[in-house]
Specification:
The protein has 183 residues and is an alpha+beta fold. It contains five helices and six strands, in the order ββββααβααβα.
Length: 183
């Protein structure tokens, strides 16, 4: 199928999810998807059996793979696994909730997110929460840009941010360039 589960602690199980863009590493807790890592050249996991997984966990795995593949194609995911975002502070969780409200193909600035969550002066803190986002592909922090549509940062790397925005049809210009991202 898609995976190689490996228990990395008593509460998280890591699974490699094969996609056309590479192997993403998903980390599941008993509550749901807790972390998602972008493909790396060296990301490999041993190949334990999925026989130990519950039907609930297998369902989450299938849903996660579909959501990743849909997102990579620039299509809205029809379903998401439950997210376990309990690792974040209350502020981070508030930001992550706001990120999930950004529609595919839309963008917002860090300042707009800060305003939206009722903390208009917390622009840098919003940027920090985006950087700490444990599920950056499915909790779409790539849709958040710095002021004046500057790229800002992205925990998955700027190449991934550019790739995801281009897949969603976002035509944002690189600073100092007439060239659109993805061209």
């Amino acid at each position: 199928m898609t995976s190689n589960p490996k228990t990395i602690s008593k509460s998280l199980t890591a699974v490699s999810i094969e996609t056309p863009a590479g192997h993403f590493i998903a980390h599941f807790s008993e509550a749901g998807l807790a972390r998602l890592e972008f493909p790396r050249r060296t990301a490999t996991l041993p190949q334990p059996s999925l026989n130990e997984w519950s039907s609930k966990q297998l369902k989450w795995l299938a849903i996660t793979k579909r959501a990743i593949c849909d997102t990579l194609r620039g299509q809205p995911a029809s379903e998401f696994p439950p997210f376990d975002l309990s690792s974040g502070t209350d502020f981070q969780q508030c930001v992550w909730k706001a990120l999930r409200g950004i529609a595919m193909g839309a963008i917002k600035s860090y300042g707009e997110i800060a305003q939206e969550i009722g903390s208009p002066k917390a622009v840098r803190a919003v940027g920090g929460a985006c950087g700490a986002n444990p599920i950056p592909l499915l909790v779409p922090c790539h849709r958040v840009l710095a002021a004046n549509l500057h790229l800002g940062g992205f925990s998955g790397g700027l190449d991934w941010k550019l790739r995801l925005l281009a897949a969603e049809g976002v035509d944002v210009r690189l600073p100092g360039s007439r060239r659109a991202w993805g061209e």
